[in-house]
Amino acid sequence: MSEHQERISLPTIAREWGRIGCTGFGGPPAHILLLRRLCVERHGWLSPDEFEDGIATTNLLPGPASTQLAIFTAWRLRGPAGALVGGACFILPGLALILALAALFLADDPPSWMLGAAAGAGAAVPAVAVQAAVALAPGSLARAGTTRAGRARWIGYALSGAAAALLAGPWLVLVLLAAGLAEVTVRGQRPALPLLLGALPATGGLGALAWVALKVGALSYGGGFVIIPLMRYDAVERYHWMTDGQFLNAVALGQVTPGPVVQTIAVVGYAAAGPAGGLLAALVAFAPSFLFVLLGAAHFDRLRADHRVQDFLTGAGSAVTGAIAGSAVPLALSLQLPWQYVLLGLALLWLLAARRSVVPCLLLAGLAGAILF
What we know:
- Helices cover 77% and strands 0% of the residues.
- It is mostly helical.
């Protein structure tokens, strides 16, 4: 724990982490930047090395890494109480906003301009998936090493992840886990048996919603966007809580609101069971992040040194990259209007050729949709 624990008050943590929760548009890169400015540059609460170690460790954990970094940095400053307060204040502003927007977008008779804005923003979502996969690929490939065999395995894992996102439905999680265990085995380590949360049956109702949210919160290896293929099958095809178009809207809302992308699950929960469903889904999805930090933070140094963990993430991360890229295909096929494909092409140019940011892309696509609808 940090030497600063005793002098950083809980109201200070609530205020500062809540401010980041309100202004953290742009996903994990923005969250990391804001946390670094707060904890390292402005106040010196953590040293640069302490902060970088926090980034490295939380990236080893399943679940939303930037959320876990927010919880972990607050833990370093004030222990378990700081972790709970900081994490909650980081999450709650974006959650309140996304639930309010979900109520508007999922209303029985929303105004036509709102439907158009949703259709426009949704049209850009497949491009966001492609951009997320492209951004993950270099780091993931670097983990695989420079040998021909390592690169070949990386390609195989990525292709298996892409195929699973297209075809496997609820079995996608098992493919990700299998890729990680395969890499551990190939590198000669004795694999530790991970918790399998992949495709156990749920009968429906709030139990099914909680199960879907738990998978999202506990198994989103490689960044928040891997929740898209994890969620889509359950939300659209298995339980029919949403249409494909509404799911695209949910993903877009998760991108344009502040806070972690995993809050998309709150929109799915709202569609399944109203405001209570949205709150339940968020609570279940974020609970693993708090538990990982509260129960494991004191052992994070040992976790980082475990070669089995590193090797597992090498294989699973490769499959995650492929799964995110593969998820763009069903998302694109769910578009229904010709002008949506035009917006999708423009979004690809904006994100991949011009290398501009996601939030303005979705907002401009939503504005174009409101005009064209």
